[in-house]
Structures
1.
Amino acid sequence: MATGTLSHVYPLGSRLNERGRLEVGGCDVEDLAQEFGTPAYVYAEDDLRARARAYVEAFAARAERSEVVYASKAFPCAAAHRIFVEEGLSCDVASGGELYIALAGGYAPERIYMHGNNKTEAEIDYAVSCGVGHFVVDSFDEIERLERLAPGQPVMLRVTPGIEPSTHAFISTGQVDSKFGFAARDVPRAIEAMRTLRLDGLHAHIGSQVFDMEPFEQLGELLAAMGDYPLLNLGGGLGIAYTADQEQPSLDAYADALTAHAPAGVTVLCEPGRSLVGNAGVTIYRVGTVKRIPDVRTYVAVDGGMSDNLRPMLYGARYEAAIAGRPGGEDLCTVAGMHCESGDVLIRDVPLDDPRPGDVLVVPATGAYGHAMANNYNGIPRPPVIFCSGGDARVVIRRERYEDLMLRDESL
Ligand code: LLP
């Protein structure tokens, strides 16, 4: 990143203000750090809305009938849900907990799709009692369970189509050797096993952070050929740019691929998570220590790390960073967290401008699977979620407090 400019991975509308400081949603990031503390997840609310709207429009322009289903695992947050409800999205939940948050966010229960490769009886009962629209059935055992607990329930069937996009193995889900769904050869047997369940369509999700559109088109063709149903759900997975050198495939190209082989009259569903929320959010940290090891490495330690962003450790995910008041720079640094592990490194070899203790450090593109996968390792309270728009900031999820860490402890 050249000094004075921002890369395209920042939320829409981000800019450097007159003081040369980073602004997200019209809010000066240093002021946010001062007011709300660090670390914090900061989202540009208008970015979330714009991307949701673009998704709805892209699919409406190509398919007679379409439905954009937000994969809420990416950012399970009621305030985000409310925006997506207003924009006409449906919701994918992968557990009872995500269902609870989605309902709090205001979706009509019939617009919710219940996922999971091992839904418990308690989750099934809960989802049925809420009036969830569809279960996405994942296994023969689940068919038996649903027949018993939810006879007559509308369902979709999850297929593992044997399509393997190029992405990290941990987030690749389309292959036959997968814990998810039914291999194509087992689909007829699964359909036969359904006695009262109403099969409304097929579903597949081939993986996440996918840049090549070809596998999506193949998937649409394959699933459309597997039977005539009212619904055709081709999952999520559209990749996003995490660093300046990456370019996100266009939404138009993605929508083209998903709708290319959709039969007339079918409702085409897509299930985006990351591509709706990933670039809408940044994480802000405060630099605490700078350790220079001459000729070896400069460690810039921030007040978070693997408790607020597990992605570098789990998937080798690469991010960029900037000092909020001095974006750009050429000092190659390693941004480390404050946890008791050498592996607690957020970014290796990222250029920064002479980082010092007290600086606010911003990591963009953390809007997906950051807050969602946050944890309390080392007894660290989880960061708040701040929504910014037009220069106003509001806390939508407050910072955890030390007392929260003891809330479930029954021993005292
Ligand atoms: N639909 C289903 C059934 C899924 O399992 C997923 C993601 C999605 C949709 C949304 O995929 P997306 O559009 O976000 O790529 N924690 C990992 C990602 C795991 C994705 C799991 N399933 C990460 O941080 O990269």
2.
Amino acid sequence: MYIETYGCQMNLADSELVMGILKKQGYEITNEIDKANVILLNTCSVREHAEEKIFHRLDHLKRFKRNNPTTVIGILGCMAERLRKNLIEEKKIVDVVVGPDEYRRLPEYLELAFGGEKGIGVKLSRTETYEDIEPYREDGISAWIAVMRGCDKFCSFCVVPFTRGRERSRSLLSVVKEVEKLSERGFKEVTLLGQNVNSYNDNGKDFADLLAAVASVDRNIRVRFTTSHPQDMSDKLLHTIAEHNNICNYIHLPVQSGSNRILELMNRSYTIEHYLNLIEKARKIIPGVSFSTDIIAGFPTETEEDHQMTLDVMKEIRYDGAYMFKYSPREGTKAYNMKDDVPEEIKIRRLNEIIELQQKISFEINQQLIGSEEVILVEGTSKKSDQFLSGRTDTNKVVIIPKKDNINIGDYVKVRIIRATSATLFGEVN
Ligand code: SAH
Ligand code: SF4
Ligand code: F3S
């Protein structure tokens, strides 16, 4: 079997789960699509563009299927959940459609498909967490661990509560056990995943308890987490991050907009004042903490004034990084019923202003790091040159350093920053 993964980190974790399930059934995993009898696409629905990408991929696979008619093609993930039987009806090459809560049954559906029968499994579950299933992971440095599934927030623009169902948490013990195994295998970093990790709840044990327990497994393992919803972030969590050296001083805290009127229409359930307070508090409790965010440009009814408020908030907070998007109406969401009334060219202009501002801020922040010393975890060879290694700081900044014989992937190395762009730091090792 061969699998391609699109969308968020949750999908990356789910693909490892799916590989774990299929491997147990005797399937062999391959990176070469030509060798596979099963091709799976784990898909994303978050914006229209994400879905278009999959449709293009399917058009491309049409030729492949013509030459290899016995190959089974399956769609997993959020598009499977959202489009269901339409996928099979509209895209004749699709044999199997399985949503995020039905992966246990994937082997059954594949068996049917080998017999020529199409299959759809898209029931959502209130309890499925797959915590008893061991994901398939190649040896490496970093691992994703989904500690929750689903989302109950229902932000008005967002399709995720519909594609992933109600929120549910894995047990703390099962997460700790997984981290213990990763530690034995030599992993150096884990990222705990959930759509809103701050509402993690295992019989009263909250996300701060989980983080503390995970961080205590192996002090040589860095612990990261995403995503935090600004409404649910507790003081206890901030103190926990500060108390544990190996919990990274980095928080992804999506703001979405700087305008209270728009935040309310988005059903984000916090005000900008609350958000700014939270950032201020976090900076006090966790000195040197870095922040990234998500921003949507051109939500229905957004005026120039609202847009300016977003730019102002960015200037005030000075995020280390941001993921910035143009609003994309999603069928079934509450915002879909509002008129998508910001013209495309204005959305594009506002998005570009947001991107330019963030690049300027990131560049300035990174320039100030020149001359400073940072500890990085070496994660691999630089994408651009095999003469260089790539690692990240505690605050999630990518640092490129020259290769040296005594530096190995997985090492923590002290580096001095000598150069910086808006996206990358360059360091030397003494
Ligand atoms: N649970 C996470 C991730 C949600 S999806 C969170 O709450 O942050 C990641 C980001 O995609 C969101 O934060 C939002 O900025 C963006 N997004 C979601 N739906 C969107 C839409 N319909 N149009 C544009 N951007 C969207
Ligand atoms: Fe979507 Fe909001 Fe849930 Fe994030 S918190 S997944 S944006 S509904
Ligand atoms: Fe996309 Fe689903 Fe993740 S919509 S962003 S793959 S939760």
